[in-house]
């Protein structure tokens, strides 16, 4: 079982979020007990923005058990397709947001997604198994 992990869960854990930190850590540990944990390049970059420039985010993510998994071409194209559907249905975002890229990566390159933004991903990525802490 491969679980893709979203930025929100990792930030909860790394920053010790008082509301979601414990539940996100418990959900990550449970997912790790069932298989591999991966984070796509978009998540890696988003998490790195929470760090000082001289800190090595990669070490902390690996310490949590995550493996870096770049997005494939089919996943990137799926994100674009899903975003286009979103725009046709009245969505107002003008660029492909990170959430579309993360959702497409999880759908095509993992078995499920661990995220606190479960409503968005369930609504836009039919068939994606979503876990929420």
In short:
By secondary structure, this protein is α/β, with parallel strands linked by helices. It contains seven helices and five strands; from the N terminus they run βααβααβααβαβ.
What's the Cα radius of gyration? 14 Å
* CATH homologous superfamily (4th level) name: 5'-nuclease
Secondary-structure element order, as H and E? EHHEHHEHHEHE
Estimate percent helicity: 40-55%
Mean pLDDT: 92
Described by the principal axes of the CA atoms, the overall outline is globular
Which sheet architecture does the biggest sheet show? 5 strands, parallel
Give the strand tally: 5
CATH fold name, please?
A: Rossmann fold
List the domain count as a whole number. 1
What is the CA–CA distance across the termini? 18 Å
The level 1 CATH classification is Alpha Beta
Strand arrangement within the widest β-sheet reads 3-2-1-4-5
- Low-confidence runs of at least 5 consecutive residues: none
Percentage of residues in DSSP E strands: 5-15%
The second-level CATH architecture is 3-Layer(aba) Sandwich
What count of helical segments does DSSP give? 7
Structural class: alpha/beta
């Amino acid at each position: 079982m491969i679980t893709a992990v979203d930025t929100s869960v990792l930030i909860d854990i790394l920053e010790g979020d008082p509301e979601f930190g414990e539940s996100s850590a418990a959900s990550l540990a449970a997912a790790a007990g069932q298989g591999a944990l991966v984070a796509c390049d978009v998540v890696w970059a988003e998490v790195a923005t929470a760090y000082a420039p001289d800190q090595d985010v990669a070490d902390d993510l690996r310490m949590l058990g995550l493996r870096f998994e770049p997005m494939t071409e089919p996943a990137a194209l799926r994100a674009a397709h899903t975003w286009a559907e979103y725009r046709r249905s009245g969505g107002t975002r003008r660029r492909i947001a990170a959430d579309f890229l993360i959702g497409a990566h999880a759908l095509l390159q993992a078995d499920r997604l661990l995220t606190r933004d479960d409503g968005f991903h369930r609504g836009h990525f039919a068939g994606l198994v979503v876990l929420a802490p």
